[in-house]
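Hey, I'm writing a tutorial for new members on how sequence and structure tokens pair up, and I'd like a real worked example in the thread rather than a made-up one. If someone can provide the structure for the chain below, I'll link this post from the tutorial.
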Amino acid sequence: MIAKKKTKTRKVNIVVYFYMILILLLVLVMASYAWFSISRTPRVSNISLYVNTMQGLEFSKTPDANEWTKQLSYADLAAQTSPLRPVTWSDKDQRFYGAVYGIDGRLTGDWQPLSDERNANRENYLGYYCIGTFYARTDEKVAVSLTPATEIDDGVNGSGTYLIGIPLWDETEINHYDGGADAEDAVRVGIRVTRFGEDGQPAADRSEFFIYEPNCDSHQDDEGVDVPDGKYSPTPSIDGTPTLVPEDRLITQTASVWSEANPVEKNVQIYTFGEFTSDTALFTMEQDEMVMIQIYLWLEGQDVDCNNSMEDALIIASVQFLAENIPETGMDPIPADD
């Protein structure tokens, strides 16, 4: 009798032990998956961006340069291979913040402050976003805005202002796929304009920060479903405001897309560039004035499209400034008769 009870007890212990092992394995598998999915940071490591202007402005990488130009490559202004990791902009603090992860790999809901000196244009684990700094000058009084995107070269290339994923050719499938991997929907472009002070140096208290949000109507909702009818959902700020910057400094543009030629050709795609849905005005400049301009690129961590499905991406972007002459409205004084 005692032997039977021991046998029964041993069987129960074995069953309990088996289920404990099974539960433990499930927990370990779930924990490993959760760690992988949460800690796999989306990033954009290949960006081609060009800054150019039409008439009225000239650019230079230094304020005292002998040569000025109408176009600058972002690769000459910032480390083009620097990674972009999810951050968010605080207009209240005028700085970026990075999300804080716990020891289990989960988001804690806290944000750590970042700085341009420590976290911009870095290729190691400290790299979060990119900055390109240059200078603009004018010999006439102008109003500066962003130029709409237009097609050139039979739709193969474009000019103006846009951001789009690069089509990559697949020899086996005989078609292209989007090298942007949807990252173009989460990328933001910041434009900081800083005027010079009386000491001849850029003055921090004389700067404005604008955000250009391309592809603003191609976002997903909180459940990962495309928002119907191209409805725009503004990205909220951690400051408690409904937008990252006030609306008068937020420039939005509908999605820029590409499609295959018919029949498919390796080197031919059809581009349709987005249209601005807001005012594109940036700033004005007086005759012979010079300003410092900084172009920021980042992955907006508050954007619902910034998720783990996004890995390395290839993106091409263009920022073009339009400088329009501001006519003098005053009347010249009439000289007195001798």
